[in-house]
């Protein structure tokens, strides 16, 4: 499809209530049907991997009574279900089966094991924790992470250090929501991104992403969380464009209502910036 009308696509999404405690209540197959009904050319299903220990079990999964063993069993069903849906709807849409891995203690080794066992089409590498503390949850938890780092500026730098470690260790096809660290920043994150040390960390990571030829997830979920721009934010986009990094919209959907959310906005931003909107797929 030409750049005049970019094909509908999502490189990161389809978290469903079947396999994710914080999803919005819709079965995965209903979400697949919604992508098809909306005319998507392709999309990826990228459910979260199970935690490596009870320490990292989310409150939602605890409320469902799911221990680590139960979450591993659920993830096994997830991969089996995804492959069945991939086959069932092969004539209607290109569906890629993946998962979103984490960056807390033990997560990299677990991701390697999952990749070896399940052979996903691709993986999304994300950072949701620094010092094993969640950085996209309640603001008071973010404050704990910043306190442990010594400052918010140091927290940013340590976030990007961990992200680089994830990139080097896993070589994920897609780097998820690159600047998620800004979500709970109580100050002006746009000014924070001008900090020379933070900017050095950002450029370093982007240069490595380019060297490894990875895709950046242009994650549109930020627009539903009060932000005025997706992850990746404008100054980082400028560097990514300069380096020739591929960006692809990710709706980060957590239910039928959020399938394809803000795609038109995301595609417009990327097109106006000068990015290629013949979206690169996360598999060769």
Secondary-structure blueprint:
Blueprint: E1 9-10, H1 28-37, E2 42-48, H2 59-63, H3 68-88, E3 94-101, H4 107-118, E4 122-125, E5 129-130, E6 133-134, H5 139-149, H6 152-170, E7 174-175, H7 189-192, H8 196-212, E8 215-219, H9 234-243, E9 246-250, H10 263-273
Parallel strand pairs: 1-2, 2-3, 3-4, 4-7, 7-8, 8-9
Antiparallel strand pairs: 5-6
Helix pairs in contact: 5-6, 6-8, 8-9
Would you kindly provide a written description of the structure presented here, covering whatever features stand out?
The chain is α/β, with parallel strands linked by helices and 284 residues long. It has one domain: Metal-dependent hydrolases (TIM Barrel, Alpha-Beta Barrel), CATH 3.20.20.140. It contains ten helices and nine strands. The strands form two sheets. A seven-stranded parallel sheet has the order 1-2-3-4-7-8-9. It has a two-stranded antiparallel sheet with strand order 5-6. Strand 8 (215-219), helix 9 and strand 9 form a beta-alpha-beta unit. The protein is globular, with a radius of gyration of 18 Å. The mean pLDDT is 95.
């Amino acid at each position: 499809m030409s750049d005049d009308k970019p094909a509908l696509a999502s490189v990161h999404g389809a978290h469903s209530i079947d396999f994710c405690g914080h999803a919005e209540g819709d079965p995965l197959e209903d979400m697949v049907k919604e992508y098809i009904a909306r005319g998507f050319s392709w999309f990826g299903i990228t459910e979260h991997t199970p935690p490596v220990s009870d320490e990292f079990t989310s409150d939602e999964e605890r409320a469902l009574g799911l221990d680590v063993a139960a979450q591993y069993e659920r993830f096994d069903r997830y991969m089996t279900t995804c492959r069945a849906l991939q086959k069932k709807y092969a004539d209607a849409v290109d569906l890629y089966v993946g998962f979103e891995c984490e960056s807390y203690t033990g997560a990299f080794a677990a991701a390697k094991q999952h990749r070896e066992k399940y052979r996903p089409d691709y993986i999304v590498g994300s950072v949701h924790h620094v010092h094993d503390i969640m950085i996209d949850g309640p603001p008071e938890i973010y404050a704990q992470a910043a306190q442990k780092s010594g400052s918010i500026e140091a927290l940013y730098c340590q976030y990007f250090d961990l992200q680089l470690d994830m990139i080097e260790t896993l070589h994920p096809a897609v780097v998820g929501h690159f600047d998620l660290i800004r979500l709970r920043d109580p100050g002006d994150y746009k000014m924070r991104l001008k900090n020379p040390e933070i900017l050095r960390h950002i450029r370093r990571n982007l240069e490595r992403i380019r060297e490894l030829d990875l895709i950046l997830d242009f994650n549109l979920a930020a627009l539903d969380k009060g932000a005025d721009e997706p992850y990746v934010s404008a100054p980082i986009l400028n560097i990514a464009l300069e380096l020739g990094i591929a960006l692809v919209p990710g709706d980060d959907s957590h239910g039928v209502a959020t399938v394809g959310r803000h795609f038109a906005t995301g595609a417009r931003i990327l097109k106006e910036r000068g990015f290629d909107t013949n979206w690169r797929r996360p598999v060769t």
